[in-house]
# Entry
Amino acid sequence: MKDILPQEMAIRDYVIGLIKETYKTFGFSSMETPCVEHIENLNSKSGGENEKLIFKIMKRGEKLKLESAKSEADLTDSGLRYDLTVPLCRYYSNNANDLPAPFKALQMGNVWRADRPQRGRYRQFMQCDIDILGEPTNLAEIELILATTTLLGKLDFKNFTIRINDRRILKAMAAYSGFEEKDYDTVFIILDKMDKIGLDGVAEELEKEGFAKESVDKYLELFRVITPDTAGVRKAAEMLGGYLDQQYADGLVTIMDSVDAVKNADFKISFDPTLVRGMSYYTGPIFEIAMDEFGGSVGGGGRYDEMIGKFTGQNTPACGFSIGFERIVLLLLERGYQIPGANQKKAYLLDKKLGSDAMKKVIAQAMEERQNGFEVNLSVMKKNKKFQKEQLEAEGYTEIVEIFAD
# Structure
């Protein structure tokens, strides 16, 4: 967790405003959920590895009985949310009758994970999610990708890649190669390391797990011949034959072609059959934002049609895209990003011997300038005036006026 200094806070406030403004043009409505959720919701086996990172909250008052507690479950009944998707599903299950169909949700807020901090990753961090609930067609994926990439384009990000795959293609490739369904998770965890250890490394780890060399060779051959474009999707469908329903490949082609035809930012969309996404709740298309300047993903999402049903007993089509807000802000700070169209900033340094009438005159001048859109800072002149002016300049004050007593 970290303190946020004014320079970063200005960038964060600007990005938050731009997110809301941009996503509103795509029909998304802001909503909010509490930061605390019931522990059974957080432990619903929908959050994958994140469920191991929950900040748990002890029971309170008379409910907390330390002397009779036999396990952790006797001590905790809630926790801090580790993402925004689980709370959204609970929110929708409680409020669906009062929401439009489909419901296009924008949710921003802090989440908490007891994780190992590193560059761009904290234990408390802001998430920004857009989700479309109740839309079964690929229009949801297309809208989510276009909204997110439009936002990134407005922040001057270029040459990034939207990697896209489908969980059903992942499973079909494993079945075609001869892996048993009970082993899929193990296979996919190893496959997810492809960008770090390469094809040979994946082959070595699969064989170490005891999988037949014939299956491993057949599996890896798929990745050698499938290209990262719509032709690759069609090639995969052709090779996988009876293991993959043709409509899933057609859907992926529709998403890629549609996005590519109307995009208004500088990026490419690429079919990546090695893309796994860690969350177990994904049921269809999945996607990530890859940026070379960060060296990893700065956002991702996918379709999760079965998750809301765990709360309501009735499955609801659902698809979402989350940008890595903290990573985006980090990249903007590292490149010295300047907020476009920011108000001109002016500072007055006042002699501490300044009389009352002169002081009123300066304050009146500042108030008039503020009404005209200036950001005006009034402060008393310090002994080390040079350092004081350097600090103001570092904060973006382009005009500094010294007012002395007569």
In short: Residues 304 and 319 are 6 Å apart (CA to CA). The mean pLDDT is 90.
